[in-house]
Amino acid sequence: MTVIDELFARTRSENRAALVGYLPSGFPTKEQSIRAIRAMVEGGVDLVEIGLPYSDPVMDGPVIQAAAEQALAAGARTNDVFDVVEATAATGVPTVVMTYWNPVERHGVERFAADLAAAGGSGLITPDLIPDEAGEWIDASAAHDLDRVFLVAPSSTDERLAMTVEAASGFVYATAVMGVTGAREQTSSLGEQLVARVRAVSDKPVGVGLGVSNGTQAHEIAAYADAVIVGSALVRCLLDAPDEAAGIDAIRALANDLRAGVERS
After folding, report:
1. By the 8 A CB rule, do 262 and 18 touch?
2. What sign does the CA torsion over 166, 167, 168, 173 have?
3. Looking at the 3D structure of the chain, how many domains does it have?
4. Is 60 one of the catalytic residues?
5. Domain of 106?
6. Residue-wise pLDDT tens digits, 7-24
7. What is the pLDDT of residues 200-250, one digit of tens each?
8. What is the DSSP letter of 241?
9. Quick check: bond before 28 cis, omega within 30?
10. Catalytic residue from among 46, 49, 192, 263
């Protein structure tokens, strides 16, 4: 079993969903992003997604785009993400990188897998890579014991969904809304239907993301999903804060609220 497999075995035995939190590497700086991620873990996040800042993020909404722009302007580069992964993995939580595929290709697929594994990373989330074009990554990830997290959407055909779920490992990332990332006032009603479709073809854990901003929404999703994934709401804690200390406190408090949501009976 991978460390992600072990995490979901534990949360299922505890009869709760896992809490997955996202923050970008290098935002606002590499050192500050490490401190923010540590605060997120202290607040109760079970698994950390570290975003690799990208100049043309087609899936990301304005909050994460703004954070990526700040990180890139501050000099964030692909190699920096491995330092952030190492610091995050040292907290003891499974750590994955979320990235568009182009930076992985430019770095070198085998080299990226080796560097991620050496830093203590557990896997990679690839929002714009489909399994039928992922042969090189499937081979490299298998060679370095990394999980492959692919995305499914409400628009996925039954055939596409089954193929994607079969190729995934660790967990399946179900995007509960059609559109870009961003916190929303209400969670999507499509999430539960999408999870049911995944479970009809596999018992792999399913995480639901896009739109969660508070513990109440986290609780709604935890009622039917194996993991609740939160990104933009956590990033906004740093974007809106008057200083780093306030941002760190806000991230820890939000993570604590979200954790209470996924554990609420």
Report:
1. yes
2. negative
3. 1
4. yes
5. 3-263
6. 999 999 999 999 999 999
7. 999 999 999 878 999 999 999 999 999 999 999 999 999 999 999 999 999
8. -
9. yes
10. 49
